[in-house]
Amino acid sequence: MVILLLLFAVSIISLGVTLLVSSPAFLRSLTIGLKALNLGLVVATFSFIEMGHSFINDYPLAIDAPGVIALATVVTVDMMSTLYVLHRTYGDVIIYKDKSELRNFLVYSCLFLITMELVTVSNNLILLFICVGATTLASVPLISFLKTKASLEAAWKYITIAIIGELIALLGIIFIASSAPKGELGKLITVPFQAFSNFDKAMSSTTFLLGVAMCLFGFGAKATIGPFFVWPPDVYVESPAPVSALVSGAEVNCSFIAIIRIFEIVRPDAHVFYPSSIFLMSLGIISSAIGLARMIDQSSFKKILAYSSIEHAGLIAIGIALNQPLAALAVYIEMLNSSFSKATLFLASDALTPQEKNINRSANVSPGIAVVILASIVALAGLPPFAGFAADILLITGAYMSGQYLQTGLIVSIIVISIVVLLYRVGKILLASGTLEAAHQKTSQAPNAIMPLYIGLLSIVMVSIALHGPVVSLLQTATQVIVR
Amino acid sequence: MTIVAMLGLLTIYPLTIHRSPKGVLYMYTFQSLLVASIPAALYLQTRQVELLILCALLILIKSVIIPAFIIRRNIKYAAKSVEPKLAVNYAVGISSVTAVILFTLVLFYQILPASFGGATRIVAVSGFSYAAACILVLSFRRYAESQILLLLCVENGILLASLVMIPMIPILAEVIIAFETLVAVITLAWLNHHMRYVFGHTDTFEMKDLRG
Question: Which of A292, A440, B12, B157 has a Cα-to-Cα distance from A282 of 20 to 30 A?
């Protein structure tokens, strides 16, 4: 509990510093220091849970293995995007040139970070719902930060869909709460997730199942699964690159944590667990198929990433629904790998697009930016030597071992087509004349802005290395939450 | 409570046919007062003081602060006071809303366990039905202000159902949800203000630049 309080204290101090400190240099140093401290605390929590310490209790705030995995992605991606904003002096919008704009951006991103951290540590249904709702509200000022027509339209589309999704989830929570025995109505929304098994025998299955389906559908709106796939391409393309990185790399994982929590409470009840799995599986297949189909005809780098992100979200949903330890392991690896690789690529996309007219075509391409982009694309596509490859293999093996051969075939097809399309489409953009030269010119004007990209690459590599030992037991603990 | 719920359900028709966001605002305020009266009715049955506090809170936030201080300001600055044309004509609108109400009434009445008493079941079913119909009406409206109000109406329907289905919900949770609704409305109004400033209008049907 103390470590959680420390974590929130650091985030709140960060917000205070952003509001109170007026010197840009001092603000920059303090912000970087506090973000590093935040990351340090998350690493400490990660290590404690890895060593077998339990942070599960009856408090409304608690952290367990799935929570710490999401928290790690949230804090790392937030650090990357903050560093990027502090050092960027190029791109489609120059936030850094205007002191008050920079301050506004940092304030909004601190609020966004606090709400996302709260989602990962929420330990009951109502708090989870409130925190997921808060992430939507905190992200709107960031998405519409440029105040252009397109960004405002994207923000409006996003908030409308997200609120409808959350209202459906609220309806689901009411159904879940009303499925308890007569004398305990309403208690279910405030009991810790682990205590749900005490109620399962006396609960009404039909109401509970309906509630669970509504929660999955509602939270799925923010996790970009199911029929709510319309907002990500617009939001990711029209918002500034650091915001696209935060939303795709951190917020989507928070929504998946909400879905994992719903599975955690469903797990003890077989009558509800299996139909819920089938429902989530259908949502996942719809997302993957649509993401893949739309990715084929895209020519914009950010849009390709957006549709790839929808396709990956679908695969994560399928992994959760498979109810197989290997597939569940793949879910967490995919969450970590795709989160870091998407965030890195969205930050890099700022240097790649839009094309500037006065590009020096003869300039040498910096190996730095080219390596970062290439490695991140390979990691996102799920090719060796990165963790994405392990996730894909585990997912396919998990589906095969659970005897779901049709699903196995579908997963294999989705993965193979996605690798081909992603590499072909992105390769075409990157190898187009002048793209990488322009990126090199822009980043060489602000050399520190490439640092967050290296942090992203380092995170991708660390996830891949850690799979050979250090985090395996933590991931296995996390799988127990979603496997019956 | 049953009469209040039925009256609430009937307010969906003015919401469907009224072309002025101001009219939608009045219906929303009226409906919020109806929803706030449910905890008062429950208080008369159970004598729990928390229900009275909840009633006061709902009246303050949903019937005073949101309509009078936030949405009214937005509507005041809107370029046109009446929506030029709804997405569907009146006949289609009314018949589709009626179909949704009837379908959801039957569906949820069947789904809800019989352990809920007669009045509780009817009020809860009305709330769900109302929320579903409001989602449909939301798709008919063009102006962002009307859409915000309809999102709030959906929330009213869900709140109506939750008040009777889970009366033992902690007051703190209710207060936090009410506060979050307030923050959501402020965020939507802020976005609406910027949309009007940048686009010169808030007609969402005219915003077709982004197609996914």
Answer: B157
Is residue A15 within 8 Å of A111, Cβ to Cβ?
yes
Contact criterion met (CB < 8 Å) for B180 and A134: yes
Chain A residue with minimal CA distance to B157?
A171
Among the partner residues A126, A152, A163, nearest to B195 by beta-carbon distance? A152
Judge whether B56 lies within some domain: yes
Whole-angstrom Cα distance, residue A369 to residue A371?
Answer: 5
Of A163, A174, A238, the CB nearest to B184: A163
Cβ atoms < 10 Å from Cβ of A230: 17
Number of structural domains, chain A? 1
CA pseudo-torsion sign A472, A477, A481, A482: positive
Chain B residues whose CB is inside 8 A of the A147 CB are 194, 198
The set of long-range contacts for A460-464, using a CB threshold of 8 Å and a minimum separation of 24, is A460/A337, A460/A340, A460/A341, A460/A344, A460/A375, A460/A376, A460/A379, A460/A386, A460/A387, A461/A375, A461/A386, A463/A333, A463/A336, A463/A337, A463/A340, A463/A386, A463/A387, A464/A337, A464/A379, A464/A385, A464/A386, A464/A387, A464/A390
User: Facing residues of A55 across strands?
Assistant: A63
Instruction: Name A28's Cβ contacts closer than 8 Å, sequence gap at least 6.
Output: A86
Bond prior to A354 in cis (omega within 30° of 0): yes
B207 vs A: CB within 8 A: yes
What lies within 8 Å, CB to CB, of A30 at 6+ separation is A17, A21
* pLDDT per position as a tens digit, A270-313: 788 888 899 999 999 999 999 999 888 887 888 899 999 999 99
Q: Is residue B116 part of a domain?
A: yes
Residues in chain B with CB shorter than 8 Å from the CB of A212 are: none
List of residues 6+ apart from A246 with CB closer than 8 A:
A77, A78, A81, A109, A112, A139, A142, A343
pLDDT at A241: 87
Q: Which of A134, A157, A178 lies at the smallest CB-CB distance from B165? A: A178
Which structural domain range is residue A397 located in?
2-482
Task: Look at residue B211 and tell me if it is in a domain.
Answer: no
Q: Measured between alpha carbons, how far is residue B164 from residues B95, B118, B167 in Å?
A: 29, 11, 6
* Full-model pTM: 0.91
In order of A110, A434, B63, the CA distances from A70 in angstroms are 17, 37, 39
8 A C-beta contact, residue B34 and residue B4: yes
**Contact by Cβ (8 Å): A361, A437:** yes
CB atoms under 10 Å from CB of A429, counted, come to 17
* Contact: B168, A174; criterion CB under 8 Å: no
Which chain A residues have any C-beta within 8 angstroms of a chain B C-beta?
A: 126, 130, 133-134, 137, 140-141, 144, 147-150, 152-157, 159-160, 163-164, 167, 170-171, 174, 177-179, 182, 185-187, 189-190, 204, 206-207, 210, 229-230, 233-234, 238, 294
Which residue in B142, B147, B166 has the most chain A C-beta atoms within 10 A of its own C-beta, making it the best mutation to test that interface? B166
Check A137 against B180: CB less than 8 A apart: yes
The answer to whether the CB atoms of B212 and A189 lie below 8 A apart is no
Tokens of A30: 């303090």
Mutate to test the interface with B, among A118, A131, A148, A174 (most CBs of B within 10 A): A174
8 Å CB contact of A160 and B115: no
Residue B212 lies in a domain: no
**Residue B178's CB: how many other CB atoms inside 10 A?**
17
B57 to chain A, any CB pair closer than 8 A? The answer is no
Residue B40 domain boundaries: 2-206
Amino acid at residue number B37:
S
